[in-house]
Amino acid sequence: MCDATFTFGQRGSHFFQCASRREITRIPQKLTAFLSSSQLQLVYHVALGFQDSFLVTWRDRNGNDRINSIGLPDELTDFLYNRNPQGQLIRNIPAIRCILGAYNTSFFVHDSSAYLWMSIPEGLLTALQARIKNGSWVDKPRIVALGADDNFLLITEKNAAIWDLDNYKTVSNMLEFSRSQERGIQEIHDISLHPYRYGCFVAQSKNGTLLHEDLPAHQVSGITNMIDPVLRDTERAGKKAMQRRESEKRESMQRRPSTLQERARIKREWSEHRQQFTAQSKGLKLSLSLSIGVGGLARMLG
To answer: Which domain of life does the UniProt lineage start with (predicted)?
Structure first.
């Protein structure tokens, strides 16, 4: 599947990205300047928020992973920039994913191992807490989306789906239908809700298909331009994953001794075709004799 980013900010801004395409509009000037920096090698993730606030995680030309942000809640900033006693950032920067609610009054963030949320809807909080036992996840969040007026969506790694989407009826109907189908929820790769516009969303399936609705007119062309690139990138990612699995399979087979090699090894070990086993029982010595012919070994192994 293709790892893509679809995020909406206030003032009609958006940032859409997949491996081969990027579409932006009305994003903060400082983010625009950053994206044109010669130091930038790769953008991992972007979250747009209230007014000119944003988060961007990226890799520089020297291979160092970095974080830039402006205007985020203090609690979120502390989480992102937390350092160890040696002064090094402790977050797994490429894995950071951040969802900002309307006006930055709520957020959900993680780096695949550490999680933090603030002021999220009560239904979402209850659903998350129910999946934590003795301080550990029993079913991690896979998709979290925050919409307008405390609307939310949660899909877990075990594909449990919990939502309150009164302002996003199409998404709600899509989830109801998917839940009734075999592997339906599992086929949903990601869903992004527009936190400042009712009914507006972008959904991505694992096969690369994009669905969207109620985007502002100035953003329709941006999502339209993403449809084919996301599909192609998904197909490429699938082929690479298949090639990687085949390569790992070949390497495993090469490391594994062949049947003939295994027979030869056993033949050497049993070259005299006889093994003496001695056991001590109640002071009496018991000797057993075991004879196995090479043909017998072949039948056992073959």
So the answer is: Eukaryota
Query: Can you tell me the distance from the alpha carbon of 224 to that of 137, in angstroms, rounded to the nearest whole number?
Result: 37
Whole-angstrom CA distances from 39 to 61, 66, 222, 268 are 5, 11, 26, 61
What distances in angstroms separate CA 137 from CA 121, 127, 132, 179, one per listed residue?
19, 12, 5, 23
* φ/ψ (deg, to 5) at 41: -105, -45
At 87-103, the pLDDT tens digits run: 999 999 999 999 999 99
- Name the pTM for this structure: 0.80
Question: pLDDT tens for residues 247-296?
Answer: 666 666 666 666 666 666 655 655 544 444 344 444 433 333 333 333 33
- How many CB atoms within 10 Å of residue 138? 11
* Identity of the amino acid at 251: E
